[in-house]
Write a structure and sequence with these properties.
The chain has two domains: about 100 residues, Phosphorylase Kinase, domain 1 (2-Layer Sandwich); about 230 residues, Aminoglycoside 3'-phosphotransferase, Chain: A, domain 2. The protein contains 13 helices and ten strands. Helix 4 packs parallel to helix 11. The radius of gyration is 21 Å and the shape is globular. The N and C termini lie far apart (about 60 Å).
């Protein structure tokens, strides 16, 4: 590991320690005479084309830097050969500066935090509206082919294993909304692609420790052309739940209505005027869509024997699916109010 770090920083590496608890890449904190840095081994099983990831990040960073973007940019270092990636056997590495005086949140702890975070993601989108989405590469093939997720789920259900039989309530709820979201997918297939983040979890925004203001948007591996509703719906999914998505006590899985309202208002106050009529409609119809899709993904993985999502006990992916479906039901209970709120930003 030290030899890879030296390839980016030269000699004098003082320490290399594991950093964070990410599920995709292996991440390390490197301390050298030049400062602190983050070294990552890229998971090439999930991201088979690391070069495309780095090209996307560099293109977006260049665009934002030339646009007076108000947040810090996470710029990858070049190695001694002038490249953004370093290779060792079959392993692929990259390095970023370590951003000081920043903190992250796995779960929102205040309505104010969700407002600040939604504004940050809105500004991120706002400054990327004039970057042609076609200039970026797809980093995960099929990521936005939602019908494929549904087909995999239906095929797994047809296997009728013991895991399928114990999940009848979950299958029934997913199936109840199948026609609605199948229509939604068909309607949104013609929307123009935007440059989106692709993984807008709350902990992918760094906040200043002292001011609590947004500092930097990180984890740009899924940065690619996609439908804008994806980020909007995933923000709602991952920021409004008062518990983690691994929480198996459904009594603790509560939708925070204040968080939901703040996300919508703070995001649309900035991006609303930039959206097409079709994109506006996609936010109304699809605000709960990614929660539904994520439940499908967890349940499909459970039926298939947990090949994708790591688990620490046999029924964890079932618990995750139940968690997401419990949140989904609460989101759907507020569809009338959410529709009215979103539409208030789009006078017709």
């Amino acid at each position: 590991m030290e030899s890879i770090a030296r390839h980016f920083l030269g000699t004098g590496i003082r320490s290399i320690e594991p950093l964070g608890s990410g599920h995709i890449h292996k991440t390390f904190l490197v301390i050298s005479p030049k400062g602190k840095y983050v070294l990552q081994e890229i998971n090439t099983h999930v991201f088979p084309s690391p070069q495309k990831i780095m090209e996307n990040i560099r293109s977006v960073n260049d665009h934002l830097e030339n646009s007076n973007y108000p947040f810090e940019l996470l710029k990858p270092l070049t190695n001694q050969d002038g490249n953004l990636l370093a290779y060792s056997d079959r392993q692929v590495f990259r390095m970023f500066p370590f951003i000081e005086n920043a903190k992250t949140y796995d779960i929102a702890d205040s309505a104010e935090l969700t407002s600040v975070a939604a504004e940050a993601m809105a500004i991120f989108h706002q400054y990327l509206f004039d970057l042609p989405a076609s200039s970026l590469s797809i980093t995960i093939p099929g990521f936005f082919v939602f019908n494929s997720r549904i087909s995999s789920f239906q095929q797994a259900v047809s296997s009728n294993t013991s895991r399928v039989k114990e999940s009848s309530a979950e299958i029934e709820l997913i199936t109840e909304y199948l026609d609605f979201f199948t229509d939604f997918i068909r309607e949104t297939e013609q929307l123009p692609a935007s440059v989106i983040h692709g993984d807008p979890k709350l902990n992918n925004i760094l906040f200043h420790k002292s001011t609590a203001k947004a500092q930097c948007i990180i984890d740009l591996d899924t940065l690619m052309p996609g439908p804008l509703f994806y980020d909007f719906s995933d923000m709602i999914r991952s920021w409004t739940n008062e518990s983690a998505e691994d929480e198996d006590d459904l009594a603790k899985v509560k939708l925070n209505s204040s968080f939901l309202k703040n996300i919508i208002t703070s995001y649309l106050r900035i991006t609303g005027p930039l959206l097409t009529a079709g994109e506006q409609d996609s936010l109304v119809k699809g605000y709960s869509f990614i929660t539904w899709i994520q439940a499908i993904r967890f349940l499909t993985d459970y039926f298939e024997g947990d090949p994708y999502y790591k688990t620490s006990y046999p029924q964890q992916n079932l618990s995750r699916a139940r968690n997401q479906l419990h949140l989904f039901k609460q989101l759907e209970e507020q569809r009338a109010e959410v529709t009215e709120l979103i539409n208030s930003y789009f006078p017709r």
